[in-house]
Amino acid sequence: MSSSPVDALKRAAAEAAASRVVSGMVVGLGTGSTAIHAVPALARRLRSGELQDIRAVATSYQSTMLARELGIRLVDLEEIERIDIAIDGADEVAPDLTLIKGGGGAQTREKIIAALAVDFTVVVDEAKLVDRLGSSRAVPVEVLPFAVAPVSRAIQRLGGQPELRMAVKKAGPVVTDQGNLLLDVRFTEISDPARLERDLKMIPGTLENGLFVGLARRVLVASLDQGVPRVRELLPPGTS
Ligand code: 5RP
To answer: By alpha-carbon position, which residue is closest to atom 6 of ligand 1?
Structure first.
């Protein structure tokens, strides 16, 4: 793993989240360059004996493969009824803790895990904080390959500009862990994320989209304080 200053921030946020895990918990393992740091942090705590009896549910092949490699016990959703804490990253975080996720194309499983989690803890570096969702990032939408054309037209009618996500180091489009395609949708303004989330979901042929509304229980934000990573906690408005 790289050790750039930004990576140190990502690691600090993810390790702060991993330190919230206690023995016996079911943990959701997120996807991306920030959340993935929680996996070795948990593995270290398990190896030292400080943590015991952890079961994890992974949101992608990325977190599945690393958890397996590091000996973290993985379970399926059939084996559990709830998740105590899910630790995941985000592409944008608005002041009310609504999120855009899916930069790694994993938003469908990520949203299922986040919705099952008692404590959905989001880990970011401060560059992810925005005043309004959609300021810097498109909204990823997972789409059945059969339905890409009609879904694209329906998204345009909602005011979005969809673009098929193309793969790097592979010819053709990105194929999700579920075997579907991704549309990255630009909106000039997202004034009502909850409504847009529902509108996108209602288009036949779409699965989950990257708008996460009312799910984050806390956001751990890492920033540099006199050259040293410092992590602060943001809570949803009205909570303490
Ligand atoms: C993957 C995600 C990621 O959590 C999100 O894209 C943030 O990734 P990173 O920490 O690499 O910036 O939603 O689908």
So the answer is: 103
Q: Do 22 and 85 touch, CB atoms closer than 8 A?
A: no
Residues with CB under 6 A from ligand 1: 30-35, 88-91, 101-107, 110
Q: Is 189 a catalytic residue?
A: no
Tokens of residue 76, six digits: 């399926």
CA of 123 to the centre of ligand 1 (A): 9
* Predicted confidence (pLDDT) per residue in 213-239, tens digit: 999 999 999 999 999 999 999 999 988
- Catalytically annotated residue among 92, 110, 197, 208: 110
The DSSP call for residue 85 is E
Q: What class has domain 5-127+214-233? A: alpha beta
Report the atom number in ligand 1 closest to the C-alpha of 124: 10
Mean pLDDT of 160-177: 97
| Pairwise CA distance, residues 93 & 179, whole Å | 28
Is 234 in a helix, a strand, or coil?
A: strand
- Fold classified for 139-207: Alpha-Beta Plaits (3.30.70)
Tokens standing for residue 223: 């920033």
pTM over 0.90: yes
Range(s) within the chain of domains with CATH label 3.40.50.1360: 5-127+214-233
Ligand 1 closest atom vs CA 123: 10
**What span, in angstroms and rounded, lies between the C-alpha atoms of 181 and 165?**
8
Measured by CA distance, the residue closest to atom 10 of ligand 1 is 34
Residue 219 burial class via C-beta count within 10 angstroms: exposed 0-12, middle 13-18, buried 19 and up: buried
